[in-house]
Structure formats: structure tokens, C-alpha cells
Design brief:
The chain is an alpha/beta fold. It is built from 13 helices and 14 strands. The strands form three sheets. It has a ten-stranded mixed β-sheet, with helices on both faces. The longest helix is centred in the first third of the chain and has 17 residues. The two termini are 18 Å apart.
């Protein structure tokens, strides 16, 4: 089995339009939440989100080409371009053995809503764009990346709701570990800040409705949390086998130590109250990596700021890590980025591996009141980043339907 390393990263997020900006904002505890600008949200229960800001896709993609892509594909192309350049990959790989495995929970929701809305308000005459279907389907972002760079290796998209891009990372890791490819460009993206998503999540009572204090609305593990804040963006990681990376003299950010998968098999949207699926996925990741619980220094938790989810994840962490749980740093970077749905695993993977590389734990911001149902003796890295040696970090993502994925990153030695 081959070792797998990360050699390039790229990101476009609500708190930074490249990796450098994103990491600086994470370390400084910047909130990405603001009032929605994409549509008139006045009549919606939630009027804010974590949108990508000051982003003009035509700075990266030809205007005509960009019009034929959904924003979720824009985020994929732009983050992939940064990661591929960062890795120095162009001209340094076998195109037949370089693949793209992308993650998206929904795909082109903005395009889908617009086309259907325009049809519904018309006279019934179908006037759909010829690009409607290829703009909307969730696999097209990976297709665009492979077409742009000529990557002819494995190419597909993983869809497992909010676990989608961690699922893509895990699949990429397995393909490389087993020698199916030399390099895989992986990650995920989502662009769901629109009327349909906001209305749907509001109807589920999943979103925070803290319109009077939106910048602090994402409050993981706080007593007064009232739901997640919708985010958008994308992140890309270039993964390659260690021998391939060394042969071409690539810089190495971190090693992928292992990963795990599981299902809650419990409910379409609620977590298992005893955290059984989460316990299993973290144990599976540790077993795959050949690590013990005490080897983990930091957990980037799913931590969505929902009343049930934060409790269930905390229960699971204590079950898996025992007394070592009190020696860990734990943080939810969703307190800053909001919840990027299918793109969450990618941006959080970058947060985790940069924590390992820089020995800095990004904070969980917006903590004001301890929740008596959560063990606050655990170190949730509340409100301020902390410096500590981080040799190994674990990143959790969980999706509607009970899909769970954990990935483990460790210092490359």
C-alpha cells in the first residue's frame, strides 16, 4: 500500500477567497455571516448567510464560459486552479494517471431554481437553456476540472449531503493508496444561498433565525445555539502518492493517515442521540490509520450549531477518546464559515492540515454561555486560537441520511 500526501491546496470561502486569506481569518476568529445579497430575503425567517464576498468569476474564467456554469462549478474551478498551481502539477504528472474526484451535496441548485422559476412564471411554453442540464448536474464540476487540465484518470462525484467532499477525499485516498492513480485533484463545492435552500432549511427549522445578531449566529456548543448558518464556497486538495511527490520534488503539507466511513441508520436528518454512527466512524478512521485515540491532538468537529447535533458529537468524542478527550483541542470552524453543506469537508480538511502544519488550533467563536448538556471541561478552543503541537488532526463530517466520514491528517516526517 502506498502512502498518500497533500501537495497543493486551494479555497474560496465566506472568510477568504484564497487559502492565505482563509487561514488568516480562521486564526483571527472572523465571522463570515452577513445579510443576504443574492436575493430579497425580507420575507424569509432567516435573512442572513455566509456568502462568498468580493468575488468576480470573470477574473478567473472567460465571461461566456462562466455563464454556462453554475456558481458551485465556479467555486470548484477557482479553488482547483489555486491548488494545482500551488502543487506545481501542470507538466509534472502523467495525465492518464491523474484524476478528479469531487464532492457536492446538491450541485447546481441556483441554476435549477432559476430555470424552473422562469418556466413557472411564463405561459407554459418551454424555453429552457440548452445548458440547463449540464449546468445543474452535480458531477459537472469535476468534469470541468478534468477538461481544463486534460486529466484522464478516475473522474466522478460523491454525493452524501454534508459529508460529500470528505467522501471524495476518502475515495481519492483509497484510489492512490491502492495504486489506481498517481495524483487525484479532490475536494468539494456548494452554492446554495438562494430562495429554495433558505426556504427549505427554514421549513425544517434547521437554520438560525438570529437576524438581530447574525454575526454571532453560528454558535457551536453554546447553550443558546438555534441552528446552522448556511455557507457557500469550495476547496481543493491535490493528493498524490508519496513516491510520486518525492520524484517530482513537490512540497508536502501533510500526510493522509487514514479515514473512516459509517452510517447512523437512524433518521433522515437527526443524528443518533447516542452518537453510534459517529463513534463508529472515528473508530474506523483510527483503525485505518493504525493510530490510538491518544495519538490525536486536534479534532475539527462537524459542529454545526444545531441543538441535537452538537450534543451527539460530544457524546461520541468522549466515548471514543475516554480520558484523552480532555487533552484534545476541539473546534468548529463552521462558527466562522457557516455550513458549506457538501463543500464543508474540503474547507475543513484545509483547516485541519494547516493546523497540523502550523501548530495552531483555529477557534470556535461566538461562545457566550455554557450548555449544561455539554461537558465544558472539554477544550472547545472557545473564541481564540490556541498554539500547541499538533502532530495528528481528525476532521469529522456528517450528512443528512446518516452519512458519516472522518479523515485523519498527520505531520509528514
Amino acid at each position: 500500500m502506498k502512502r498518500v500526501v497533500v501537495t497543493g491546496i486551494g479555497a474560496i470561502t465566506p472568510i477568504g477567497n484564497n487559502v492565505s486569506e482563509y487561514w488568516e481569518s480562521l486564526c483571527n476568529g472572523v465571522s463570515g455571516a452577513n445579510l443576504i445579497t443574492r436575493f430579497d430575503a425580507e420575507k424569509f425567517k432567516t435573512k442572513f448567510a455566509c456568502e462568498v464576498k468580493n468575488f468576480d468569476v470573470t477574473n478567473f474564467i472567460d465571461r461566456k464560459e462562466a455563464r454556462r456554469m453554475d456558481p458551485y462549478a465556479h467555486y470548484a474551478i477557482v479553488s482547483a486552479d489555486e491548488a494545482i498551481k500551488d502543487a506545481g502539477l501542470e507538466g509534472n504528472c502523467n495525465l492518464d494517471r491523474t484524476g478528479v474526484i469531487w464532492g457536492s451535496g446538491i450541485g447546481g441548485l441556483i441554476t435549477f431554481f432559476k430555470e424552473c422559476f422562469d418556466f413557472a412564471k411564463g405561459d407554459g411554453t418551454p424555453r429552457f437553456s440548452p445548458f440547463f442540464i449540464p449546468m445543474m448536474i452535480s458531477d459537472i464540476a469535476g468534469g470541468h476540472i478534468s477538461i481544463k487540465y486534460g486529466f484522464r484518470g478516475p473522474n466522478f462525484t460523491t454525493t452524501s449531503a454534508c459529508a460529500s467532499s470528505n467522501n471524495a477525499l476518502f475515495d481519492a485516498y483509497l484510489y492512490l493508496k491502492n495504486g489506481i492513480a498517481d495524483v487525484i485533484v479532490t475536494g468539494g463545492s456548494e452554492a446554495s444561498v438562494n430562495e429554495a435552500a433558505m426556504g427549505g432549511f427554514n421549513s425544517m427549522k434547521a437554520l438560525s433565525e438570529r437576524n438581530d445578531d447574525f454575526s454571532t449566529a453560528s454558535r457551536p456548543f453554546d447553550k443558546d445555539r438555534d441552528g446552522f448558518v448556511l455557507g457557500e464556497g469550495g476547496a481543493c486538495l491535490v493528493l498524490e502518492t508519496l513516491d510520486h511527490a518525492l520524484a517530482r520534488g513537490a512540497k508536502i503539507y501533510a500526510e493522509i493517515a487514514g479515514g473512516g466511513l459509517s452510517a447512523d441508520a437512524y433518521h433522515i436528518s437527526a443524528p443518533h442521540p447516542e452518537g453510534i454512527g459517529v463513534i463508529n466512524v472515528m473508530n474506523n478512521a483510527l483503525n485505518d490509520a493504525g493510530l490510538k485515540p491518544e495519538n490525536i491532538d486536534y479534532i475539527n468537529v462537524h459542529g454545526t450549531s444545531t441543538p441535537l447535533g452538537d450534543i451527539a458529537e460530544t457524546i461520541a468524542i468522549k466515548k471514543v477518546f475516554g480520558e484523552h478527550a480532555y487533552k484534545l483541542n476541539i473546534s468548529s470552524t463552521k462558527s466562522m464559515t457557516g455550513h458549506l453543506l457538501g463543500g464543508a469537508g474540503g474547507v475543513e480538511a484545509i483547516a485541519s492540515l494547516l493546523a497540523v502544519k502550523n501548530d495552531i488550533v483555529p477557534p470556535t467563536i461566538n461562545h457566550f454561555t455554557d450548555d449544561p448538556e455539554i461537558d465544558n471541561k472539554l477544550n472547545f478552543t472557545f473564541n481564540k486560537a490556541q498554539k500547541r503541537t499538533i502532530n495528528v488532526a481528525l476532521s469529522n463530517t456528517f450528512g443528512f441520511g446518516g452519512h458519516n466520514v472522518s479523515m485523519i491528517f498527520k505531520k509528514y516526517l
